[in-house]
Q: What sequence folds into this?
């Protein structure tokens, strides 16, 4: 018995379809949702969503956000959602290199906590996109 | 009476203006369509977010967040004004700016408020207030181009920071609401403290599990809700700008048509008069022989 999954972002609805299960990156660790899951609401961390559809698995890189699980409808609210197949790996690699360089630089000179956090998040997003792209290609 | 050549020159010049206004109208129409799509696309996210926030605020009364708590007395007021970067959009920016001026004045005349600080988004707002209230200008965001969520997030984060650190006790936002293609009206809303309570009908709800706990969830949700609010205002402003420009350019094109019509009439009359005069001269010359 499949259920409805919608992934909404400020730029639009990224995904809306019936799925048989989904694994989401909660802040307290990954969790899976199967049909009939109890209603709940949780924040999401930057990470990967694994969506099981009738056509197979899809991998998407999510930025942080929230997931709302209802009786037969899961709504994922994230700032960005990119499916592996549409990720520009070269761009993600560049973003990764840039973030790494910025982190290395901030370690040496100014110890700006805020800047460090921003760059760390950027690095995490880049790694996440690279991973999702790799996984989605393997199918 | 203007000479034939003068009139001709005017007609050519007006025609060139018409080409420009017509092109601008087309560009604005295309941009408007894109901007409207962006407004529509952002809606589900904004609505879900809002619904989640309202639900948590309602079911978890004990959960608190610094951005939700109203200050007992407002001494410092922040006003955020959103305009476009470019002009030639009719009265679009003038309307918002005038309205913003009233909001600021109202704030200043309210008892208890000691200072008003401005956050300006869009080049037009910057220019306007640089002349009128140079000392009150805080941050200016200009030349942003097409609205992105990142920009909205940056502005929202800055405002949240000002609020939590006590640099401001209330934040009001003035922007153009995109009512329809023909109607954009300035609007003021209170951004901070964040209004979680609402009069919207309570959706049917079963008890909710929240992980890890309501406070953590609110901590993540409230700043996001603020970002969304700013993002929505930016998008509406953008759509309104293009709609207003489209309307302005359309009427400008119409005006040039009218002008070309009356100039052509004038030109033909002058030409006829010249011909008549020449004929009269020839005839009277022939008679004199």
A:
């Amino acid at each position: 018995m499949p259920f409805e999954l919608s992934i909404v972002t400020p730029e639009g609805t990224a995904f809306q379809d019936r799925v048989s299960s989904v694994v989401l990156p909660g802040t307290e660790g990954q969790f899976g949702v199967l049909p009939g899951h109890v209603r709940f609401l949780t924040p999401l961390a930057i990470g990967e969503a694994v969506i099981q559809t009738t056509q197979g698995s899809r991998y998407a890189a999510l930025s942080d956000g929230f997931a709302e699980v209802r009786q037969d409808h899961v709504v994922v609210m994230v700032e960005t959602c990119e499916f592996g197949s549409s990720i520009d790996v070269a761009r993600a690699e560049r973003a990764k290199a840039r973030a790494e360089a910025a982190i290395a630089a901030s370690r040496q000179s100014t110890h700006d906590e805020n800047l460090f956090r921003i760059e760390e998040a950027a690095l995490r997003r880049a790694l996440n996109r690279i991973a999702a792209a790799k996984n989605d290609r393997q199918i | 009476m203007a000479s034939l050549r003068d009139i001709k020159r005017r007609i050519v010049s007006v025609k060139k203006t018409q080409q420009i206004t017509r092109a601008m109208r087309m560009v604005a129409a295309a941009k408007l369509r894109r901007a409207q799509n962006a407004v529509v696309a952002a809606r589900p996210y904004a609505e879900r977010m809002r619904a989640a926030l309202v639900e948590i605020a309602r079911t978890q009364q004990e959960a608190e967040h610094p951005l939700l708590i109203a200050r007992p007395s407002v001494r410092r007021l922040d006003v955020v004004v959103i305009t476009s970067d470019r002009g030639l959009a009719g009265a679009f920016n003038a309307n918002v700016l005038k309205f913003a001026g009233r909001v600021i004045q109202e704030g200043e005349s309210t008892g208890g408020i000691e200072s008003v600080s401005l956050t300006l988004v869009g080049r037009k707002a910057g220019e306007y207030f640089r002349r009128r209230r140079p000392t009150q200008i805080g941050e200016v965001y200009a030349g942003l181009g097409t609205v992105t969520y990142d920009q909205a997030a940056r502005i929202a984060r800055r405002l949240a920071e000002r609020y939590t650190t006590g640099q401001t006790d209330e934040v009001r936002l003035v922007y153009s609401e995109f009512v329809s293609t023909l109607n954009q009206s300035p609007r003021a809303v209170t951004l901070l403290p964040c209004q979680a309570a609402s009069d919207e009908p309570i959706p049917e709800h079963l008890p909710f599990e929240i992980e890890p706990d309501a406070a953590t969830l609110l901590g993540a949700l409230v700043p996001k809700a603020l970002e969304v609010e700013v993002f929505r205002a930016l998008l509406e402003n953008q759509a309104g700008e293009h709609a207003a420009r489209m309307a302005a350019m359309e009427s400008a094109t119409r005006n040039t048509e009218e002008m070309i019509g009356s100039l052509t009439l004038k030109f033909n009359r002058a030409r006829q008069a010249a011909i008549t005069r020449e004929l009269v001269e020839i005839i009277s010359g022939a008679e004199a022989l």
Chain A has a mean pLDDT of 83. The two ends of chain A are 23 Å apart (CA to CA).
